[in-house]
Structure formats: C-alpha cells, structure tokens
Amino acid sequence: MTEILLLIIAAAVIWRLYLWSRAPHDAPTRSVALSLLCAGLSYPVAMPGGSTGIDTVAGHGAAKVVQNVLLLGTVYFLMCFYLYSADGQGARRRARWEAAVVAAVAVAIILAAVSVPHEALAGSFSTADMTISQVAFFYVGAGLYLMYALGAAGWWSARYARMSRRPHATGLWMTAIGLGAMAVACAVRAVFVSVRWSGGSVPDQLTASVAVGLVVSSLLFVAGITYSGVRARITATRLWLRRRRDHGRLTPLWQLLIEVYPENELRPASRGFWDRWRARGVHRRYHRRIVECRDGLVDISPYLVRGEGGTDLLDLEPTQLARRLRSAVTMIKNGDPAPGQAVALAVPQEDDRNADVRQLIAVSEALRLPA
C-alpha cells in the first residue's frame, strides 16, 4: 500500500508542478504544488532506506525531524491554498500569521529533538520512549498542529463541496473526508502519547490500526485533490483519440475533393512531427479537414445535380452520394461543364457540429467501398 501511495503522490506532484509552471503567479496553484511537494518528499524520508541515509549523515533521529517538518510544511501550504482561494484581501496577511505559527511549532519540535540523545527518536512512533518529556512533546506538538491544520482544511473542503457541482464536488468531498480522517488520526495519536507519557500502554493492534487509517486517508486526500484534474485529462484524452480517429476516417472524402480542388487545402500551422500528436495540433488538423471537406463539397455540388434545382441531393444516402462524387470527379477531369448550381450536400437533420461530422464520415466511409 505504501508503494501505491508513493506512486500516486509522485504523479500528483509532477502534475501540480506542471500546472504551477504554466501559472507561476497563481497563489492557490503554487500552494497546492508546494503542499504536494512537501508530502512527496516526506514519504521517502520516512522509508527505511531514506531514514537510514539521513541518520547516517546527520545523526540518529534527524530523519524523524526532517519528516515531521516536511509534514508541517505540507499542511501549512494546504491551508494557504484555501486562504488564497477564499480570503482575497486578507489572504496574504493570514498566510504570514500561519507561517509564524508553523515556524514556531517547527522550531519547538527541533529544540525538543536536539535536547535528547540521538537514539531517542531513531525508532518509530510505536517504539519511541514517550516517558521522556521531550520525545512526548515532539510527537504531541507536531500532531496537534497537524490536527489543527488538517481539520481546518477539511472544514473548508466540505464547505466548498456543498457549493460546488460535479465533478468538482466529488473531488472536494473525497478531500474533506480524507483530511477529516487524518485530523482524527492525529488527535488519537496525541491521546496515545499522553497515555504512554503518563506510564500507561497502548495495544500494538490499536496503534497499527491508526497508522493504516492515516495511510488510507492520505490516499483518499491525494485522490480527491487530483480527481477533477484527472477526470478532465481523461475527457480530453478521449476527445483527442476520437478526433484523431475521425480525422483519419475523413481521409477518403478529403483526398477525392483535394484532388480536383487543391486550392481548398488550408496551409497548416506546422508540419512538425510532434504537431501530429499534440492535442492542439490534432484539434487544429481535425477542424481544418472538416472545413476543407465542406468547401470541396460546395465546389463539386454543381456536378452532382440531376434533378431540377438539385433538390434530390438533399435526400441522397451516403452510398448514393459517394457514387455521384466519383462521377463528378470524372466529369471535372474530362473538362465537362457543370450541369447545375452549387447546393448543400450531406446536411444533417440536427443542428449539431458532431452530427455534421457524422454525415461527412458516413460519405467518406462509403467512398471506401468498391465503386
């Protein structure tokens, strides 16, 4: 489960850093990116390999201090996101005040850590000697601030979720539940510390259950803050795939029309290899091909008329229209005059761009059939 959490956080960090690079002056975006970055750095530090490396360089217990300071930074920047999103004028002042609070907590737990032997913080939460007051203060101080910040962020998330619509509301509710569960877990751990500091004991199964709850709630939190973005990317990817496929399906009709009316081919913005795969390039080529096909159909329509006024063209099935298009191309190549005037072709019954494209694709697919 820890590996899954690391992969999800790594993907979220990369995505949010990318969004930050596109809007470097947007305070909420910057806050989310820094929050996820601190969270992403804290988990490798907590892993056995990461903690061993830091402890080897800086002394036993240093990894625990670094991890908790990063966690404080995670929830602080998370609070900043909500402050900048909601508070407007007072956001910067409130963010500075919150920065002073988190800095004071960080300094306090660092002083508590350096005032005890290095081995006192080398173990895990379940094995630490909480009868040492500095160790108990280290865990309680960090835990209470985490509870405060996570609880406040969860309350804000639930508030915005009630005011939002799907899919944003879904992601916000996931975030609110994850944050609330993490705040509760921090409060429970603070109670555990108090019990152990006073000489009592806490069952290992209970401690392990709270730890699992923290991991699960962290997963839910990360999933919630990335839900809307991931869903939007999935929708955009599906649109990209559909338009790329439709661009190819329009090729027979486009080739037939461009063969006789090459002047209708619009100049591409770029002929680079990556332009064929980038979302902007795919959408641009898709719309350009629709325009080229429509222009070509208008130009070739006088050669398709067989009835009076060309009204019969409106009732042609795609296969019938395909046969007439082939005949019209032959007439144009032979230099025959147009028997009629320009009329509308392959007009959809619905007033919808997608319906228009479906009509063009139907004619194009009919051109793939044997003449």
Strand % is under 5%
Number of helices: 12
Q: Report the radius of gyration as a whole number of Å.
A: 32 Å
Tally of extended strands?
0
As a percent range, the share of helical residues equals over 70%
SS-based class: mainly alpha
Can you put this structure into words, describing what you see?
This protein is mainly alpha-helical and 371 residues long. It has twelve helices and no strands. It is rod-shaped, with a radius of gyration of 32 Å. The chain starts with a helix and ends with a helix. About 4% of the residues have low confidence.
In a few lines, what is going on in this structure?
With 371 residues, this protein is mostly helical.
SSE layout and pairing:
Elements: H1 2-22, H2 27-46, H3 48-58, H4 62-86, H5 91-114, H6 133-163, H7 168-197, H8 204-249, H9 251-260, H10 279-300, H11 318-334, H12 353-367
Helix pairs in contact: 1-2, 1-8, 2-4, 4-5, 4-6, 5-6, 6-7, 7-8, 8-10, 9-10, 9-12, 11-12
